[in-house]
Each structure stands twice: as structure tokens, then as C-alpha cells.
Amino acid sequence: MSGSSAVSGAAPCRFAHYFVICGIDTETGLEPDELAGENFEQSPLRRTFKSKVLAHYPENVEWNPFDQDAVNMLCMPKGLSFRTQADPREPQFHSFIITKEDGSRTYGFVHTFYEEVTSAQICSAMQTLYQMHNAEHGSANAPSSSSSSSSSMDSLASSLDEADSPASSSRGAGGYDSSRDTLYVSKALCLITPMPFMHACRRFLSQLHRAVTGTTAPPLPLESYVHNILYEVPLPAPGRSLKFHGVYEPIVCQRPGLGELPLADFPLGEAFNLLGVENLVQVFTCTLLEMQILLYSQDYQRLMTVAEGITTLLFPFQWQHVYVPILPASLLHFLDAPVPYLMGLQSKEGTDRSKLELPQEANLCFVDIDNHYIELPEDFPQFPNKTEFIQELSEVLLSFGLSANTGRKAVALRELEDDGRNGNLAGEELAVLELLQGNATLERLQALTKRTGVTVARVEALRAGVKCQGTEGQGGRTAAEEDELKNAKLNVQLREVFASRFTTMFADFEAFVIQSAPDLESWLTNREQMHNFDKASFLSDQPEPYLPFLSHFIETQMFATFIDNKIMSQWEEKEPLLRVFDARIDKARLYNVRAPNLRSSSYQRCSILKESAQTIEQRLMKIDHTAIHPHLLDMKIGQGKYEQGFFPKLQADVLNTGPTNNKWSHRTATAQRRKDRHRQQTEHLTLDNDLKEKYMQEARSLGKSLRQPKLSDLSPAVIAQTNWKFVEGLLKECRMKTKRMLVAKMGREAVELGHSEANITGLEENTLIASLCDLLERIWSHGLQVKQGKSALWSHLLHYQAREERLEQQQAESPGDLLSSHLIEIIPSLINCQTLSFVCRHIQMMSEIKTDVGRARAWIRLSLEKKLLSQHLKQLLSRQVLTKKLYKRYAFLRCEEEKEQFLFHLLSLNAVDYFCFTSVFTTIMIPYRVVIIPIKKLSNAMTTSNPWVCVSGELGDSGIMQIPKNVLEMTFDCQNLGKLTTVQLGHDNAGLLAKWLVDCVMVRNEITGHTYRFPCGRWLGKGVDDGSLERVLIGELVLPSTEEDSGRGCRTPPLQRSPSQIRRIKPTSAQIQEAIGEVVNTIVKHFHKPEKERGSLTVLLCGENSLVTALEQFFHHGFRSARLFQKTVFVWDFVEKAVAYMETADQMGDLQETTEPLGMTCQSLCRYVNAINSTSRSIGKDGKFQLLVCLGARDRLLPQWLPLLVECPVIQQMYEDTALLRDRTTVNALIGVLETLHDFPITLEASLVKGIDL
Q1: pTM of whole model > 0.70?
Q2: GO MF terms on file (predicted)?
């Protein structure tokens, strides 16, 4: 009783929780491993057999229950491995990680070696298997047809096992013969620890194995060393170092302090060496953006080194999704997970990447570690300041003697591993040296030869290889210690460079955190509805080059969790990573590093590299704590018997309980009891702990489809439950994404509904749409029967399209037969099927898109812009025969209820307008249709003159196109114009019927279906209206009537349009002044938006409620325009008369006396008016006034021209006394308002200023 309580009490502070031995169970014998994919084509020595956990000590630890299946699977991911004396049998080391469902991690460190098989039963079983194998395959030299035709992933993996060992071919068909060969089988020694002390565990296990292979018995029974590390070696305290004893040498480890970066013992230098700096930065960026990352290598330890290296560098963020750095062969179905993941897959020697069929690749980052090669997803934003960042990392690596170059071949890596400078000897040399060092007789012989002046050259050379660094090291450190120190210093410096980037980028993040809940309970309850971070304001505060990356990153789960932790730190203890990060930001503020560089994209280098390395070195030089030495245990005499080459069966009774008398475990147990008492007291005061934990887990897992799936239980029921969780997670993700897109897009209505954010930037919108594309790809990849191409969605669309074309063909050939067989399925969608296939065909014709993933994304964007995404996908999935053929039963697309909800969420996106196709594919050719609608009652439908049209948009214009005579409709192909802004319409005034009254012009984008209306309502012709032969019309997007219902909730204001001449209600002077104020305010707001988000300035200058319209109303107030029996007088007539007066006065010398600036202003007004009058364009009097206002606004002259017009005597003839233009106070106020536009660079569209050279 006391023993077990000591075990549990001490466990949280123990260095190691379990010691495990895995290998062959001689009682059950050889069991084939079905889960790993059996293949009887292979020789028996290459087949996969089940390993077992032979023993683990202690039996159980209360807060880290022993998971036998997972540990066995990860200690021996390929199962048991057999060898003969002819095969290489070097020991191997690898590590693994078990992530529990709550996200907590346990580390395993495994030393695998080969032990002679002594069981006659197993040797004879292997002999029998070989005889059967030879009988089947010996007669036929050629491979059987069945094996060559097999193409599944399992058979590929297992058939390539043949190439796993170079000796497999050398033994020929004879294989294993029990009378001639010695059989060896793999055995694994494993330490399971709460923290990743990789180097210490590796050295301990290596020494333990050396004790077994040495010619003399170790100083103490092995139980003493195992008992010591399990119960008597504590975890080092934060900021302290610890020394404990292995079998032969002491082992040192150290733990970072509370203010330092958390512990990371995996060698980052090796990860950089394996991938190269640039590749590693790219993979790191993919990890930050939560893509699917698959690592691929023959070596388990390489998989672990790269995975742990990358996740370590994420500080202060943490990977929130599926994390399986070593994916056992039996768990390949995990690759089907439709969620972000980071997994490691073991490759077989000689495997070709092209043969590796992965369930989904649309958003996959594939990392071939052994060949230093990566495949990145499409549409991939670069990490900010990537070039300077890579440069700084390369300099750190070079300072430690490591090359930063990428693309080294595997040979160079082998040389690196065998290089004495890295403290690594080749495997055989190290084994020889270990053997010699562990042998007392040889040591005495060596001492004797030295005294007589004879040297044993081979041993001396080996020693020199190990000790070359030790002699240089301070304080007489051994080569291994020197190497460990170098690794630790390199690790911390590389990590500091990464941490420094985040400290710079997120120095002001706290200012944008929205703290809206009064207490933790209400925050957790309403977590899903809460808006926690002001994303738009944060992005607007960032340098332009950072935006593509940051806009994606702030949408990730790891960033959301980071912000959640920040909010929860108000009510509970700060999460450790956040505490360290906040301290760094505070320190930076203290030194005022950030303030001058706000919004600057200049690169800031890390300033604490030397300091961080010194901290590590000081800790390792001065050991803070030495653990109790291993000692004899209370064991029965004769136990712990030594037999060379065989790991003995350890005594469970002494290893299952810890010491009850050592002060350290007693102290821990007392502290634990104190904690328990405190917890019981607080439970009554706070919300029930279980309920709180449930809330916490739900809050933290929000947005995550599934936390870590279990590795151990592989029953069909558990696999089905895992898939069900995936389905639920995908639906939840879809709901949140569509809601986020709607709230962001609907603007003011969203604010009225209680959401905080009103505006959305185009960049943010593009990020959300890209995220939706990724989600749809993951949904379509889930549960695929057979993968075809990189995009599952595009593959499905092509299947559908081919089927529809076949059915149409059949219908054309034999309509009678078709009606009888397919009537029910076809009739309802005959109309709609055109649209889905129509969109597919358009995408296929786009030569700019080269990949299936690109085509699928273009299809999604186009369907979303046409407001047909939900309808199209519903149509696609209505072909149930096709869906059943393509998808397994558990797939998301075959879960009827979830599928309906998913389509409903997508339908909600029809409430807003997207231009996500038009704005992204800017270089494609698009067919446009133009229709001119005249007012037939008052004029001729046709005109005898030669009409022309020019269509302009945000991306360019079509150029002037002649309209064929007597035709009111035409189509033309043109490079994407973007959102349409203006149409220039005119004619050459030829013929008898040259006057033309046009109601409006309609322009339709034939791909997206967007139709724009350009209202006119004016005459084009000499001697009618204002004598204009051409007009610039401003467009408005026409909403299709079918969308009225779905869009009813959206009150987004329509785009502006051209002002028509009819103004029935004359506005009051107050209304006119208010209109001018509003227009100028709108233009100022326009310039405060990021440049790419501004839209059309032409609309604000010349549209219906624009600057020109408002100033026209100002000039029309009190204007004596209507004369009996005389023609209409226009505002432009007043301007011309005023300019004529000024020119006359100038000639007579009246203006000579005025101040110089006024004279200059007078000249500028005359020059502009004359230039407008002398243009070759026939734009009419209202068109000329519009042009004068636009040019005056552009060149900041309007406020200077107004006083000249007011002072001119002509005003008395043409304006009433009550006119606004004759009220000095009002004019001065107008000048003040117009001067606010001087701060902004106004550029005019080419269609407005064509033919004017000023």
C-alpha cells in the first residue's frame, strides 16, 4: 500500500514514468500482423510479425495510465524484425510521442537491438515458412501475375519491404536454414517520460544495452539502474541542471527557467541539415497556416526530429490538430482524415514518390526528408521578410560550422553522421570503442602497453575520434558532453531567431483583443458567439508585405487558441507559453524597440543570441543537483543473473514499487496532499470542476474537428466513431466559416445584430474564400473509394459531367427508351444541369489554370459569384448512384442529414455579393454582351448616325467599338475588366435622324452572369438637350429578381449610377449643403481604406450622389435658367461668360492691380475652360461642367476658382439675390469643405479625361 502511494505521489516529479521491454513472445510464437498489411509474396524474414510488450515497470502511474497498444505500436512500428548472422544488426534509436485526447503529451525513447533467438519452436517455424515460400516461388523465377497487377497502397508498401535490406538478395532463394544460420530478432528497450530529455534517455538506454553486450557483468544488477531512473532521479527544477548515473558514465540534463523558451531537446541543427534552411522555413509556414503536412523518411528518428523541430519553432503558438510524427503501418487510414494534420510516414528504400497514392493532396505539404525535397500546396503565401529571415538563420548555422545550403545528397548526410567533428562515429566504430571501454581486462592491457611505450593504433585512433573535442572543451568535458552543449546552444539560438520574428510581428496584438465577458463562466458559455479579436483593425495596422501571410494566419485555430488563452488569463493563471511571450513584449516595450518601427516592414534581427547561449552553458557547467547513485536492491540471491548478449528478465517485485524512505518522494507526496486539500476547499467556492473542465475543453476545441485520435483501439466501432467525429467536425467548421463570411460581408446589418466588425478588406475576404475552398476539398476527400487526381471535387465534377453528356447523347438517340428508364432522375434537373456543366466547361477552357486543384478552386469561386454554389453542389450530389460509386459508406457526402445542413449553410452565402472570381482571375478573356435601350416614345429607336461604345472597369477598358448600324445589341471578347464602372456612348451625328434619346445601356458578363445598368435618360445630338454627342455613363449592378428572397436580409446600398436630367423635386439650400458635406466625407473615407479595397472613385465623383451632382445643385440654386421663347441656359454658359469677362478685363488691365496669386488662379481657370472647350470630344455643356469639376478636384484648384466666379459681375445677371452662390458665408463654408480633399491624390479614369491635355 505504502509503496504504491509513493509511486503515485512522486510520479509528477519523476524523470521517467515507465521502463518498457518489447519483443517476441516465445509462448505465442510467430503471429503475422494483419493490420500492417500481409503479403505472402515476400520472403518470411521480410514479413511483418506481431511484437508484444514483454514487461513494463511500474504496473501503472495514476495520472499517466499505461497504454499498452499504443506503446507497443510505436516502440516497434513495423512489428518484429528478423535477421541472420549475414545481415547488419546495428542497434537503432528512435523516439515517439503519444498525444492524449486532452492534448497532453508523453514522450517515448526507444533503443532497438537484435537478440539471438534461442527458442527451437520459433526457429523451426521460420524454417517451415521458408520451405513453404520456396515451394511456391522456387519453381517460377518470374514474379506471379497477381503480384504485378496489384496496385493498392498496402501491397506497394509491403512489396517494397524486399528492398529493405541489402542482404535480402545476396542470400538468394536459400533464405534461412536452421542448421546453418543463427536467427536474430529485434527487441526494444523504452523509457517513457513526461518531458523530452532525448539526449539523456538515449545515453542511458545505450549504456544499459552496453551492459548486456559487454564481456563482463555490469557493476550492479540491471534492476538497480532501472529502479534508480524510475524512482530516484527527479525531473530537474525549472532553470536547473541535473546529473544522474547510468551504468558506466554520469548523464547531465538541464531544464529552461520559467522566463525562457520551453524545453526542446531534439537537435534542430539536424532538422535544418536534413531539409535545408529555405525548405524548412516553407514547411514551417505551412504548419503555421494549418495545412496537412506529411513527413516521409526511412528513418523514424528523422521523422521525429523534423516534426518536433517544426512544432518547437511555433512558440508562442501551439499545433492544435492531429499530431502523429510516426504513423504505424496499421494506421494508414489516418491519412484519410479531412482535418489539418502533421504526420510522419516511413518510406521503404527505393520507393518512388509518384507511386504513393495519398487520399488528399489539394492542401498537402509533402516533405521527403531523405531526398531534401518538398511539395507545397498551391496559393501559398510567403513568410514575412523571408529572405532576411533565411539569411539570419544561415548565419547562426554557419557560426556552429553547419552549412545552410539545401539539396545535399544522401551521401553527404551519411558522411555527416560518420563525422568525428559532430561527435558521431560510424556505428561499427562506436560499437567497438564501447566494447573496449566496458572491458576491464583490455583496459589493463592497454595501460601496460602504454607504460612500455607500445601503442595500440586502432584503439588510439578511435579514442582520438571521440576525444578531439574533449581536449578543447572547458573543464575537461567529454566529447559527448561537448557535443550536447553545442547542440543545446544551437537549438536555443535558432529558436530565438524564430521567437524574435513573432515578438516583432505581434508586439501590439493585445491592443486588438476584445475583452467582452464579465467572468470566465459567461465567456466559456458564449464562446462560440464571441468576437475575440479585431482582425480588420489589426491587419490595417500591419505593413503591406505582411498582409498575405497574416490575413491567413489570424484565421487559424492556433491563433484563436492563443487569443482565448490571453482572454482567460484575466481569471486564471497564464498559460506558460503566453507568460513567456508577454514578458518578452514587455521587455521590448521597456527598451522602446517597437515604437519607431510601427507599420515598418524593415527586418529586425534577434538581439539576445549570445545571452541565451551563455545561460545554457552556465547551467551545464555548474550542476545544481545530483541524483542518488544506483545501489543494490533488496533482491533474492541468484536473481539478476548475467548472460552476455541477452537482456535478462527483470524482477518485477523490486521494480513495481518505489522507495518509501527517500526525502524527495516524501516531500512530493506531502506537497501533493497539500494540493489535494486546497482543491477540495476551492471546489465548493467555484463552479463544479468537472463542468468547468468540460467547458474549458469545449472552448479550447472550438473549431477543431477532432482532437487526437486514439492509437491503441483499432476496433471497427472505434474507427466508425472516429469517422463520425470527423463528419461532425466538418459540419461545425462549415457552419462557422459561412457565418464568419456573412458577418464580415454584411457590414452595417451585422453591427446592428450585435456583432462588432463592420468592414471587410478584400484581402480578408479572399482569405475566407480560400479557406472555404480548402474545406470543400477536405469534405470531398473524406471517405473516397479510389483517389483520382489531386482534387477530389474536380474529379467528382468530371465524373458528373461525363455522365450528363452520356445521358444527353442517349436522349438524342433514343428518347423513348430514356423516358422509361431515367425519367424520374433526369426531368427535374434538365434545366439546371446546363448551368453546372456550363460552369465546368468555362473553367476547362481557361488555359491560365494548369492544375486540377486550381480548376476546382476556380469552379467554387465562379459558382459563389453566380450565387449558385449551394444549388450546383446539391445537383452534383443528387446523382446518388455516382456518389455511392465514388464514396465509402462513412464518407461525409453519404451522411444525408449532415449533407443537407451543409448545403443549407452554403445557401446562406447567396445573401451577399461576391466578386471572388472576377477579382482573382484578372487576365482571362471574358465575353461581354451590350444592349442599348432607347426611349422609343420620344425618339427613334434607331439612328442614322454611326454609334460607338467603350466599356470600362476597375481593371481596364475595351477600347472604342463601332456598333453596327440598326443594331442595338452586340457581343465582344475582352480581357477581364473587373467590376464595370463606366460606359462611354456616342455617335458621329451623321444622317438625317442623328438625334438619339437613350434610356440606358445594359452590359452583361457572360461568364459570371453579372449584369450592369448604365442609366442615361438624355439626348445625344446637336441642337437638342445640352448638345452632347457622347456621354460617360456610371454603372450599377443589377440584382437578379430570383435572389430577392435569399437576399432580403441584406440592405447593402446599390452602386451609384449616372445622374439623369430629370430632377423633379428641387432640393432646399440646407439639403444641398448637407449633400456636399456627405459627398466629401465619403471621398475622404474612400482614401482611408487600403488601396486595394477602395473600389471606383469615378462613382464618387460623377455618379448619382456624387461631387459633380452636389456642386451642380449648388450652382443651380437661384439660377435664372428658363427664358420664355428662348433656349435653355446651362451652368456651363455662366462659367463661359465669367471666363470671357476675366479675359477681357485682363486685356484692359483691370486685373493688373490684383495680387499675384489671384492673377495666377484667374489664368488657370481660363486655361482649363478653354482646353475643355477646344477638345475634339462632343461632350455637351453638362459634360464639360462635370469635366471641369473633376479636373479642379484632381489639381486642387476648385476652392481657388470659386471666389473668382463669385466676384464676377456676370453673377448678378444670371443668379437671383437669394442664390447660394451669392451668399459669402455659404461659399466660404463650401471652400473650407472642398479644401479637405487636398490631402488626397485624386486620379481620374481615362474615360473621363480622354482628349484633354492639361
Answers
A1: yes
A2: guanyl-nucleotide exchange factor activity; small GTPase binding
